[in-house]
Amino acid sequence: xxxxxxxxxxxxxxxxxxxxxxxxxxxxxxxxxxxxxxxxxxxxxxxxxxxxxxxxxxxxxxxxxxxxxxxxxxxxxxxxxxxxxxxxxxxxxxxxxxxxxxxxxxxxxxxxxxxxxxxxxxxxxxxxxxxxxxxxxxxxxxxxxxxxxxxxxxxxxxxxxxxxxxxxxx
Length: 170
Ligand SMILES: [Zn+2]
What we know:
alpha+beta; two-stranded antiparallel sheet; 4 helices; globular
């Protein structure tokens, strides 16, 4: 009789339903990755747009998204990347960025390939000023194992709350 020795790799995944998505996450791996970071992208940059984003972190994410991130093991204060797009005519500043978690997802992929190459994002509104999307990518990730990551893309519109003199109005 043959005996099989199977090396068990201990993974603990949870499936979370959020809107029309099913997100499967290894929360332990995800939480460890965020715990190992000392700050988010905004704090590691010196520009005024990032300073304004950093000052607004509690307002950037709707409560339901903070709740989702908590379930996924993501620290919302430690975004992987954030960019400032523009100041809108209504005075709000439009930002976009992303996070990662270890796992996979079922449901709409926000990646829209472009004929000229590259892609654009088709995000789903959560509130008037915040939208979200999911795709498989690992851009700039701090995760030690860069395989099997879901990239959460977001866009947020927030006020300028730091020194008005630093705001670029174009
Ligand atoms: Zn910056």
